[in-house]
Amino acid sequence: MESFDPAELPELLKLYYRRLFPYSQYYRWLNYGGVVKNYFQHREFSFTLKDDIYIRYQSFNNQSDLEKEMQKMNPYKIDIGAVYSHRPSQHNTVKLGAFQAQEKELVFDIDMTDYDDVRRCCSSADICSKCWTLMTMAIHIIDRALKEDFGFKHRLWVYSGRRGVHCWVCDESVRKLSSAVRSGIVEYLSLVKGGQDVRKKVHLNEKIHPFVRKSINIIKKYFEEYALVDQDILENKESWDKILALVPEAPIHEDLQKNFQKSHSSLQRWEYLKRVASTNQNIKNDKCGPWLEWEIMLQYCFPRLDINVSKGINHLLKSPFSVHPKTGRISVPIDLQKVDQFDPFTVPTISSICHELDVIFTSEKEKEETEAESDVKHRTKDYKKTSLAPYVKVFEQFLENLDKSRKGELLKKSDLLKAF
Ligand SMILES: [Zn+2]
């Protein structure tokens, strides 16, 4: 893997935006078949430039306008905002209050830093293969619910480029949802509650909701290897005390503490906890039995969503195929068929794909020649020569499905018309 030198970023970005960025697919996505007039033109983009200069309310007329501006501005980071009532670039010319965010994809932001109290391998911005399983579980749990419980068809999952994942739900009806409905959906998907000062963050009712039960079934597939082996969450007194703090009943608490001292591994200790809990199911006012076991599993593994990102229609979120300015990694779409195989450390960096293009070290003269011949045709195919290609393919598959749905809707409408 190529190492990434942030000092090289401006030059690398120039090359990336000139020859590698998948503009036509990107435009095809945000234009949504051109069904709604000015849908793309009214979309807000925001750019973060060198030295953290942040520019909001960018908007573009068409694909070639977008290409030109991106190559001119060379943004370190691109965010996507809402579709507004007017062109965002002209928001100052509109009467006060008339400029309104009208539609946006329903988005989710899951960030590893929100798990710092339950992962033992890394903290803050760091991630490793041991804690990445948290993101794997999060994708499975949230995506299943979006698909099966809500019936949303078009879900694009994207690696953020550093320590988390984003999801863009793009169904036509979803893009029109109000903030209130979005809040309701995130509320449904949130089980871990309370900030740093709250110890026990998951409380299950006696009647377990099917969503919770299905989520637990997903966690069960990973729990032993992730929590008991890799994270070793019951390794020593310091680590198991954090879990015993979630056990309410004094007698059970003491029993566990005694046994844990004698046991030799997290696996053994967890087996004992399950046994003790299930034999104490009838203790008054206590939710032992599977509830205790499940509450601990959920607290340690259930996805932690950034609620505010999902609620607001006008909230900005980092764009797919934007570059992470610190790691140099591209925000690539994640193949839902291969979530378990996704490895953030093999995601291409901007320097690796630029080197793959094999032009970085060419002489200045050759560079000029390349620039001169950089017509659209040539450019749009260049990413295929690099390891970015499979990720663009995942994106294209997602776009195909959007197209199919749109055509299906049109057919339905024309059949209805014929029926009359
Ligand atoms: Zn880690």
What would you say this structure looks like, in words?
- The structure is a single chain.
- This protein has 420 residues and is of the alpha+beta class.
- Helices cover 46% and strands 10% of the residues.
- The protein is built from 16 helices and 8 strands.
- Strands 1, 2, 3, 4 and 8 form a 5-stranded antiparallel β-sheet that branches. It has a 3-stranded antiparallel β-sheet with strand order 5-7-6.
- α4 (129-149) runs antiparallel to α7 and α7 packs across α11.
- The longest helix is centred in the last third of the chain and has 31 residues, at 389-419.
- The radius of gyration is 25 Å and the shape is globular.
- It starts with 8 loop residues before the first helix and ends with a helix.
- The model has no long low-confidence stretch (mean pLDDT 91).
- Bound molecules: zinc ion.
- Zinc ion (ZN) binds at residues 119, 121-122, 127-128, 130-131.
- Pfam families: DNA_primase_S.
- It catalyses: ssDNA + n NTP = ssDNA/pppN(pN)n-1 hybrid + (n-1) diphosphate.
SSE layout:
Layout: H1 9-20, H2 23-31, E1 43-49, E2 53-58, H3 63-73, E3 77-84, E4 101-103, E5 106-111, H4 129-149, E6 155-159, E7 164-169, H5 172-175, H6 179-188, H7 210-230, H8 237-244, H9 250-262, H10 266-279, H11 290-301, H12 307-311, E8 317-318, H13 350-357, H14 364-372, H15 376-382, H16 389-419
The structure holds zinc ion (ZN).
**Strand residue content:** 5-15%
Radius of gyration: 25 Å
Order of helices and strands: HHEEHEEEHEEHHHHHHHHEHHHH
Annotation field: number of helices: 16
**Helical content, roughly?**
40-55%
Distance between the termini: 62 Å
By secondary-structure content and strand pairing, the structural class works out as: alpha+beta
Largest sheet: 5 strands, antiparallel
The bound ligands are: zinc ion
Model regions low in confidence, pLDDT < 50 over at least 5 residues:
none
Shape type: globular
Q: pLDDT average, as an integer?
A: 91
Tally the beta strands. Answer: 8
